[in-house]
Amino acid sequence: MMVPRRSVETTEELRASLIEHARRLVAREGPAKLTMRSLAAEAGCALGLPYKAFADRADLMVELVHASFGDLRQAGGELQRRVGRGTVAGNLAWFAEWLLDSPAVALAQHVMSDEALAQSVVSHFHATGEGPTQLESLVSDYLAAEQRAGRVAPVVDTDAFGFVLAGAIHHLVVMGHGYPRPSKRRLAEILAAICNRF
């Protein structure tokens, strides 16, 4: 008897479900604990099922990073919804804290510590156009929107400030606990000092 092939939709549903399980596992135990076996245990499925959706762990990790950039897009949407509300510094502090508290920090560190995995992720960045530069555009777009709202001075180069702020936040993401990250209060103070230049 022939086993029916999975449809594209079914395979995509399986991938999405397994990614969600992988995200929970990484958030709870860290990316080093994510294997195809641990994913199967987390999802409560047969050991071979993750291999029906992902070629190997590297493929899974690339998709997990891709999902993290989807989370970043959503947070960027929330940042845009805050335009004209609160303070510019407070909104930027919220965004930075969200990013630094997300499992994406540990995931980024794990990926960058593995040369082959890092290369796979970078190749994916080039193929999709999604990558760390997304952070820069989200911050720059937010500042430009606040500028249109009259809360950032017209003379401010929002692209330049977006580049610098995104670079500083990205530095904290990549360095993680290996760098003395400022407290949330200090981070808010730093961002407020920068925003006073606006």
N-to-C SSE series? HHHHHHHHHH
The first-to-last residue Cα distance is 70 Å
Mean pLDDT: 87
> What's the helix count?
10
Using the CA coordinates, give the radius of gyration: 19 Å
What characterizes the major β-sheet? none
Categorize the overall geometry.
Answer: elongated
Pairing-aware structural class of the strands and helices? mainly alpha
- The percent of residues in helical segments reads over 70%
Pick out the low-confidence regions: 1-6
* Percentage of β-strand residues: under 5%
Topology, number of strands:
0
Explain what this protein looks like in three dimensions.
The chain has 198 residues and is mostly helical. Helices cover 72% and strands 0% of the residues. The protein has ten helices and no strands. Helix 4 packs across helix 7, helix 4 runs parallel beside helix 8 and helix 8 packs across helix 9. The longest helix is centred in the middle third of the chain and has 25 residues. The chain is elongated and about 60 Å long. It starts with 7 loop residues before the first helix and ends with a helix. The N terminus is likely disordered.
Summarize the structure.
The chain is mainly alpha-helical and 198 residues long. The protein has ten helices and no strands.
Give short descriptive properties of this protein.
198 residues
List the helices and strands and how they pair.
Elements: H1 8-29, H2 36-43, H3 50-53, H4 57-81, H5 88-101, H6 104-112, H7 115-128, H8 133-148, H9 158-175, H10 184-195
